[in-house]
Amino acid sequence: RSGTSTLASSLSSGEFYRTCVQEPYVLSSGSYKDFPDVLDVFKNNFAQETFRNTQSIKFNNADKIYKSLDFLYSKFNGIKHVYSSSNIFLNFHIISYCNNNNIKIIHQYRKNLLECSLSNWLIQQTNLSGYSKSNQEKIDNFNFKPIPVTCVKNLAFRLFIQINEAKSLLDVSENLNFIDIHKESLYSKDLKLRRILFNEICEFLNIEFDKLDKSFLENYLFKDNTQYNKESIYQKIPNYNEFLNLKNNQIVKDMLT
């Protein structure tokens, strides 16, 4: 719920089409399904575990993780990995691998974790993710059910812990080259700011902007109407007033918004 899929797709568009695999370690989602050789290697050689409602690949030693990354980077220029969908053992060794192999990392997350959690619960009802006009129409007309406030708050606090855990792992890696990106900046209402930030990301990754798919960028990254869960959508939740009350809690304000 932090806009990572759109960014990854934008960076692997045009002349770089299909050079980034999304969520290869999560068997219940991700673009790895488009690459049979990746899917076969992972499914045939590694066990599965259920982690935070996702089917993930389970590793019992670091060597298997490094071999899997060697395999992925032999085929792709980049990987989109969802930190919160995996356990710390895998996350730690992915960061370690990047540190040892001079692989750059974009640490992308959402500042407003309460809205991030709420967005996650909305998708569980609609079963729609990934922006498209048809999906937007379905969401606009969706009859939402009440969402448990406690569950939303608990997930938001878990995300808070995980983001700070990730920051700690990144900060202690001596040679790691990484940048932090907030969804609120990359998808700012200021469209000029979006373009500036995306260009900075391209420079960081040494990607030539002119070789990317301009049509895709304009339709999915540089338009103001490409975000599903806006305030107008939140207001459709029958118990939305409970979330407004929660947002006014000082601890929640300080940590989650």
Explain what this protein looks like in three dimensions.
- The chain has 257 residues and is mainly α.
- It has 13 helices and 6 strands.
- The chain has a two-stranded parallel sheet.
- A hairpin with a 2-residue loop joins strand 2 and strand 3.
- The mean pLDDT is 82.
Strand order of the largest sheet: 1-4
Number of helices: 13
Return the string of H and E elements.
HEHEEHEHEHHHEHHHHHH
**Biggest sheet details:** 2 strands, parallel
- The helix content is 40-55%
Q: Tally the beta strands.
A: 6
- Report the mean per-residue pLDDT as an integer: 82
What's the N-to-C terminus distance? 14 Å
Strand content: 5-15%
Shape: globular
- Low-confidence segments: none
Task: Identify the notable features of this structure and list them briefly.
two-stranded parallel sheet; 257 residues; two-stranded antiparallel ribbon
Summarize the structure.
The protein is mainly alpha-helical.
Please specify the SSE layout and strand pairing.
Layout: H1 4-11, E1 20-22, H2 36-45, E2 47-51, E3 54-58, H3 62-73, E4 78-80, H4 88-100, E5 105-109, H5 113-126, H6 133-140, H7 149-171, E6 178-182, H8 183-186, H9 191-205, H10 214-220, H11 231-234, H12 240-247, H13 250-256
Parallel strand pairs: 1-4, 5-6
Antiparallel strand pairs: 2-3
Helix pairs in contact: 3-4, 5-7
